[in-house]
Structure formats: C-alpha cells, structure tokens
Amino acid sequence: MKFPDPVQIAVPFFILLIIIEMVAVKRGARGAYDWRDSATSLTMGMGSTLAGLLSAGIVAGLAFWFWQHRLFDIPIAWWSGILCFVLDDFAYYVFHRTAHRIRWFWASHVIHHSSQHYNLSTALRQTWTGFISLGFIFRLPLFLIGFPPALVFFCAALNLVYQFWIHTEVVKRLPWGLEAWLNTPSHHRVHHGTNPRYLDRNYAGVFIVWDRWLGTFEPEHDDEPVRYGIVKNLPTFNPLWTATHEWVGIAKDVWHAPSWKARWMYIAGPPGWTPDGSRDTADVIRAAWEQEQAQAQAAE
Amino acid sequence: MNWLTLVVLPGAGIALLVVLARWLGFNTQPVLTGPDEARTIAHDALVAFHAEQAAIGADARAALVAGRDGRVALVRPHGDRWIVRVANGARVTRSGDTLTVALDEPLFAPVQLKLATDAAGWAARLEAKP
Q1: What is the pLDDT of residues A36-88, one digit of tens each?
Q2: What's the structural domain count of chain A?
Q3: Which branch of life, at top level (chain B) (predicted)?
Q4: Domain check: are A289 and A170 in the same one?
C-alpha cells in the first residue's frame, strides 16, 4: 500500500497559515515576528528537508532490516494505524526527552529551540544534523514489533504536521477538555520556555498524556509569560552557525577535557554539564530558582 | 523530486514570507526604557543573578548590569530581542567615555557603549573576576 506524503501536502497550508498569523499579529493578535528570525527559521526548514533526503535511504534500509526481523505480522488496517500512531507518538516522547537530556542529541535538537520567537515559522526551524545525532533509532522498535515501515513513516509525518500548528501564541487555550490530553499551543509554549519553571517540560508530540504520566508536565501559568529561546541565546542569525554551534561546542569541550570521564560526560551528559560546574544544567537552573523562591517565601 | 521542487519553490516561498514580514514592519530594533529594564533582562537571563547597578549606553541599545556576586552582565540587542552574557574577562577598550566590549565567542560582535558616567569604573569591573 502506498501512502501519500502528508508533509508535501501540508507545505502550501504551512505558508498560508504563516501569512495569516503574520497579518493577525500585525493587527494586534498575541505574538511576534522578526523578519531576520523568520528567515533563519525558514532556511533551517529547507535545509532540514534537503539533509533528510540525503540520509533517507539509510534510514529506510535500517527500517526494513528491523522489520524483516519483526516479532509480529501486523497488517495495514485502521486499528493498526491508530495503534501505530499512538506508539509512534510515545517513541517521539522518548526521543524528545532524550534530545533535551543528553548533549549529543541536544546538539541536533537545539536548533529548533534557538529562536527567541514562538510563531509558526519557528515550527519549521529544524535540524540539519538529525541523522548524525541518531534520532531515528527511537523509531526502530516499532519496526521490530512488526509495524510496516510505510505505516510508521506515514504516522511520523502526520505527527510532524500536527506539531506545526501548535507553534503559535495566537491560540491561548483549546476548549472542550482538549488541553487534558492533547499537546496544545499552550503546553508547547511551556516547552519552548527558558524560565526555570518551564525548562525541560512538556516533551509531547501529539498526546500530552505522556508528560502527565511520566511527571514532566507543567501547565502554562498566565502570571508567568514564557521567555522563548535557549539558556544562552545565539548572537547571530547565520543558519550555518545555528545548525552547528552545539557540535562545535562539543568538539571544543572534548578537545580540552581534563579526563576521559569528562570527555564522555561532555557528549553523554546533560547540556550545560562541566567537570567544574562552571556552566549550568537545566537541573541546576531549576534548583537555583526553587531555592530563590523558597527564600522569597520565607522572607514574606 | 528535482531542483525545482527541492530548492527553487521552497526558496521562493521563503523569500515571499521574509519580504512580507519586512513589509509588515517586523524589523524593529529594541531600545532599553531604563536601568530597571536592563536589570530585569539580566536577572531573567542569568542564573541566580541579583542585579544591582546598571549603566545604559547613550543610544539605549546596550547596557552593563553589575550583579551582587561581582558578575557583570552585558545586554545587547539581537534582532528585536535581547541577548545577555556574563562579560567579566572580556576584552575592554576605553576611549573617553566609550567602552568597547569584545567577548571570546564566535559571531558575537563587539559592543560599544557610550556611558554617561564612570566608564573607567565599569571597565575595571569587567576586568575583575567575580
């Protein structure tokens, strides 16, 4: 069975929705754009597509190899499609959480967070080095279970398309209880925040239930506006530096590391880890903030 | 898939959106409203940074903020937003009341601040380790 490519179908709608959001923001809707920032985001998106094509053959080959050693014969049907979509979303959650907690994966994923804006163009700010960081390994268990590669890739593309529209400040909250189980603009704004309270929270792709279940959920607080970006925001809009800065950082750190343990931790430790604690990990930032909050409460 | 669908059409789409963004006026430069704003920006960006004194450049487009622990934060614009760095140990050159602060960071352009008072004092603070 041949599936359509949801991303290819969605691209004209992406462009249209970005135009609509820009005009809405210009007319007073919540949100912000900067033409330089959007230029970088869109260039990163185009580069990501090209980079993905270069590695697509290897990823597909691996997928088929795992599927040949599958545990079950799962047919393509409505029920297997739903099951595959849900499990793929969980695989995305695991990937995404890892991408924030291990610097090797972060070096690739940081690109998506490197904008200080949060709008629909930010959704397209994607990595050029996903293949190098091995992000695709998180989907391999699905092939081993027995989901046909075409079905998995279709579900993954649907997941990607879903995540486009949640990158907006225009939508405040969703009605009808959808905030309880879906990843929404509000939940994902938190994920893009550098406020200590919001750091490393809400990893979900489509279903926020994974975060609620695994203790990584944080609601958006109306009295604490999200500050978007990364802990050390980039000083340039240069797409090449945006794509590679963390890899360069890893290389420099590993080169100058005082020991093999430090070399390993610079790669496999959390972003911000240093042997002397001279930089801050997300956990350190959160702990410092919690201490500050506790002191402020004690003083009241 | 060919060059038209891979590069030309997406490139045209990007150009359209970027031109539209400029045309709609999304090309502003931020200006600091006062020392309080500089202090808030530095406090929000740096871990456990308790901002004290702040000095803003004459054009209100950059600032130095001294922290209680001896750190000095450099606040400068990036697009329509701000970026902040701890600037202790930066290369500082002083010409009258103008400081040029250069960090050892790729693509971080040197920042010039024309200060109303105490440029020498701020230069000394920047040279000191926290």
Answers
A1: 999 999 999 999 988 988 999 999 999 999 999 999 999 999 999 999 999 99
A2: 2
A3: Bacteria
A4: no
Q: Does A284 touch chain B (CB under 8 A)?
A: yes
* 8 Å CB contact of B21 and A19: no
> Does A32 contact B at CB distance below 8 Å?
yes
Contact A32 B108 (CB under 8 A): no
What is the rounded distance in angstroms from the CA atom of residue B118 to the CA atom of residue A214? 53
| Pair (A29, A98) in one structural domain | yes
| Beta carbons of B66 and B50 less than 8 angstroms apart | no
Whether residues A205 and A252 fall in one domain: no
Q: Which domain holds residue A187?
A: 6-214
Cα–Cα distance between B77 and A233 in angstroms, integer? 11
B21: closest chain A residue by CA: A35
ipTM: 0.88
Asked if the structure places residue A143 within a domain, the reply is: yes
Which of A168, A164, A226 is closest to A22 using CA atoms? Answer: A168
Cα–Cα dist A198/A229, whole Å: 12
Same domain, A206 and A254: no
Tens-digit pLDDT profile for residues B60-106: 999 999 999 999 999 999 999 999 999 998 999 988 889 999 998 88
Q: Does some domain include residue A230?
A: no
Q: Which tokens hold the place of A289?
A: 């903030």
* B80–A34 CB contact, under 8 Å: yes
Contacts of A241 in chain B (CB under 8 A): 106-107
> Which chain B residues are within 8 Å of A117, Cβ to Cβ?
81
Residue A116 in any domain: the answer is yes
Residue A226 counted as domain residue = no
